[in-house]
Amino acid sequence: MSGRRVVILRALVRPNLILHCDRELFLLWVGTVFSLGFRFGIMEGSVEVIGVAAVALLIGIAWLASQTKQDPQFKDIWRRTVLRYGPRYCARPRFDQPEHKTKR
Q1: φ, ψ (nearest 5 deg) of residue 17
Q2: What per-residue string of b and e applies to 87-103 under the rule 16 or more CB within 10 Å gives b?
Q3: CA angle, corner 47, sides to 46 and 52, nearest 5?
Q4: CA distances from residue 13 to 24, 39, 47, 86 in whole angstroms, order as listed
Q5: What is the distance between the alpha carbons of residues 81 and 29, in angstroms, rounded to a whole number?
Q6: Cα angle vertex 70, ends 68, 71, to 5°?
Q7: What ranges in 34-103 are assigned the alpha helix state H?
Q8: Which pLDDT tens digit goes with each residue over 27-72?
Q9: Are 65 and 21 in contact (CB under 8 A)?
Q10: What is the pTM assigned to this prediction?
């Protein structure tokens, strides 16, 4: 097999990022903040609402960037986990349920 190379394009394995955030989540977050925060701030003429929306935008982008830095595929894994296991799966027992003990 010497001399044979398989070229994989980087675009196929790299995630789509905007400002180091996952592209879909970034656009969803920015759209939500603009449609709610800035729209109500401009309609009411309130500088405080616009300020809160700007802070929420910055905090959300920083959180998304940190999550993407830890695991670029976290959105897909989270979606798969929620759809497959849903509310049935719990890694640890909830505080109102006793722990299940296995017999050995």
Answers
A1: -120, 145
A2: eeeeeeeeeeeeeeeee
A3: 105
A4: 16, 37, 43, 28
A5: 21
A6: 65
A7: 39-44, 47-70, 74-85
A8: 999 999 998 887 888 788 788 888 888 999 999 999 999 988 888 8
A9: yes
A10: 0.62
